[in-house]
Fold this protein.
Amino acid sequence: MPLIRDGKIVEDSWVLLDDEAELPAKGDVILSLNRLKKDADTIQTRGGRTGVILENDVDEEDLAAYLPQIDLVALTFPAFTDGRAYSQARQLRTKLGFKGELRATGNVLADQATFLCRVGFDSFEVDNGQSIDVWNKALRSMSVAYQRGYDGEQATRDSNPSSQGKAQPTLA
Amino acid sequence: MYRYDEFDATFVSERVVQFRDQVERRVKGELSEEQFRPLRLMNGLYLQLHAYMLRVAVPYGTLNSRQMHKLAFIADKFDRGYGHFTTRQNIQYNWPKLPDVPAILDNLAEVEMHAIQTSGNCIRNVTADQWSGVAADEVEDPRPYAELMRQWSSLHPEFSFLPRKFKIAVTGDEADRAVIAYHDIGLRLKKNSAGDIGFEIFVGGGMGRTPMIAARVREWLPKSELLGYLEAVMRVYNLNGRRDNKYKARIKILVHELGAEEFTRQVEEEYARLDVPQGLPSDQELERIAAYFAPPAYEDLAENDADHTQHLVDNKEFAEWVERNVAPHKVTGYAIVNISLKPVGGVPGDATSGQMRAIADLAQKMSLDEIRVTHEQNLVLPNVRKHDLFAVWQELKEHKLADANLGLATDIISCPGLDYCGLATARSIPISQDISNRLGDIKRQRDIGDLKIKISGCINACGHHHAGHIGILGLEKRGVEYYQITLGGSGDENAAVGQIIGPGFSSETVTDAVETIVDTYVDLRQNGETFLEAYRRVGAEPFKEAVYATH
């Protein structure tokens, strides 16, 4: 599945490791939460970065103790209409202060790109047949947003000086 | 009322461009119907039985004359010359063509309107008391907060793919005209013991197949913290609401399964953890919004107007209309005019383009350019000088808009039902027309007094039947429609869920049953008690006996 980061299709250095597979000595691996818990000590001694994939019904607090060792969290979208991972992403970024790569995996649409970016996702493993052009067009489709305190490129009213302190518009 | 600045205008016009692109990709086959569905729903576009239906947002039910003229224009140019006002204070067009929808949205954007989030599993258009800002006994005008919530909920990055739809209603009055108890979140502005105004917050009300009255989760929240608290509620719901069964996905089920106490604990825990100020608008921004809702330029008038008083004496029909349809205004010399969209035998909530234009012109000339839509599918001219009431009435009469039946038996809420809706199991409009014709004699209606009849054409309860004093639910068994009757429901500050009285009725006999119930009430009422008061005193038994003895 193609991986999108910074508006481009990029090589994916990460490998999703099966729970039964042996932990490689090197390379970037994504583990399940159970595997991460099981091998937490070993991970620290191997070469290569560690990521974790979280199902969307897992409380992100379960990950808190391990976060310092983690460079990537992948969140799952079993259906593009299932929006739990938006809140998980938000919690990871704000409540747990996670600064690493936050990856959306599974069924996401280009049309959801702005939502995903604003809650803190920065890479997207997309599987929907939509081209990178459609993705990038969608990302640029909204230049403004109303919600404050969410990341993303859009100007919010309070962050946009041009819309502050404006004279009262006259009635038409 | 609120006016778009450059920021809002950019938001809405970019949204139209985005949707135009989505429609084109759908037409070209680049988006499947499954992928397109949630996208079009978030722009208010349904696929109904016969055609697409576009639901246009009327934020907190407030319109100006220019907007109403535009709605009339759209009805003529893109539809069949009429529109349908809904229980969510919106307007629906039943016959738009998909390729025309972006053009309709362009037209709406010209008058600062849109169809964003009038459907889909997201935070829907926020509704409010239709008398906000003008009701005589209001604590505070809730519209600035409704507008704040409109902005906050529009394309929310975290809460746009919820387990199910999400409806918020707000009132600034103890008398609840916004049905807050039946909403996912109901908000009431009230004073605390220190005299400060804040929000009382209710969560988990709803209709549908599992009707529930909302639980109070916060007795009082400082007004300025509203968005922070809503964020906490939404997050608990988004993460924990059920997604395995669409009939159990509303927040009411989560509140019910956790228990109100545990749900409240989780919300409060999340709220305590939040960096609340980060998500709140600045004071400057709150003031900017509130300034739009400053009272309009009211004249300094006397309490009574001699001409008006004379008309009341001279014209009984006018006097009766004033008695039913005109309400006290907070400003001396003014009145609130309620326009019934329930002509006897008509389609509840429908207005022709000609009627819309007439109302727009009246609003401009005689209501300080304001119109409101009510959840009971009527319209309001909120700022009429008492002196002008007679002229307004005459003009309304000219356009068949002067029915003096507000709150009476023929002021029926009805969903579109099987005549339009893809979800319906039975017709509802013809039943409401039949009942309206049967009880339509105005003398009889006035004698019956306050009575709310509400009809839904399926279990989803868009016609609010659970909250009807007499509720009617249309169902279907082996290809035959039948109608269940509930009694004792209410959507006001003493909200209650109506109780089923027994076996259902056929489409031929349901009107007889309703009439029997009404006649039974007339026979047993005491000391001028209303239908609902009488029901609460005697219970369902006398009604059941009468109905099932004769049918």
